[in-house]
What we know:
It is built from 13 helices and eight strands. By secondary structure, the chain is of the alpha+beta class. Strands 1, 2, 3, 4, 5, 6, 7 and 8 form an eight-stranded mixed β-sheet that branches. It starts with 25 loop residues before the first helix and ends with a strand.
Amino acid sequence: MADNENKCPLCGKSTNEGEIFCGDCQEIAHNAYPEELLSNKGDSESLSGEGEKANPEMEKEDMSYEEKPIDKSIEENLQRASLSRSNKKLFIFVAVGLVFMLLLGTGGIFMKNKDEEATESAYWNKCIEENTPLSYSKYLVHYPEGKYSGEAQDKIMELREKERNEWEALRKSGNIDALFSFLADHPQTPYERQIKHVVDSLSWLQVMEQNTADAYQAYLDNVKIGRFTGEYEDVAEGRHDYLIQLKAVEGDELKDVEKVLSGFFKALSSVNNKEIQKYSASVLLKFFDKENQPDTVIADSLKADFKNRKIKSISYTLPPNLPEIIKDNKGIYFTTLSVKLETTFADRKKKKQSAERIFNIELDGEKRVRSMYQKGK
């Protein structure tokens, strides 16, 4: 038993005095054995009997006691090592994933920026193709701090200046077609209201000159679609409604009107007050350039005009076939006559002058001339 006390319980090698384990097993014992094994000498002695006979049941019990802590400690160390390696792998996996995600995010931002730049460039190219202040203004709305914002502002200023110069050259031309072309070439121009006002006025003058129901209807249609501002819309509606109810004179009524017209112009040629009064209303609403002329002074006013112009006489000749004569719902007759004039001067050395004039003529309900004036003046 004395010899067994100095042997290592793990490997059976001799141990130094005072030591339980040999030098080779010291580290293993300290790491793997429970503390009570290191401090219980009696137990270690019972475990060290290598050549001594022992009770088989005790030996079996002692061996099971010895193996359990050794196997459990080794398994725990292996688990720790395995967990350590697993933690390292997990850390590496997470780190690689983070790097990948970072690279993916950076790449996504880069691609997004590239797409945005491509979209802006495409929009800008479209603006250049249209080349209007409106298109460049739209670009600035979409990209107020865009790559081409400075250039867009310069383009707007340049085009607006050019537009102003064109308008100044066009505004006094009186060319309706040119004005409409300007509006088509310069959408949303700041001069749109002025241009439409000019177009409206010029168009109305043309309508008044035609003075037909169709002409007034065409004006009203253009107002509805926005081509004209419609400053004369109410007047146009009134004239249109009035003219559409006019009817052509026929039969004996037509012959009576034609007879009055022929006699009136013969009276003017003779400059005879009595003859003029026979075929005219007591007051002519308009006679040449004068208004509200009494029939009693017509001949006198003609003679005064002849004297000033050194004219001896003027003869009026109607066409053989008179144009259509219209009557309205108030019994007023209307016609437009093309009349030939032959002027003889007081100075015999001056030759006669021949001309043709177009007159608008109205007769009242009693078929007497109440108005005569030259068309277009």
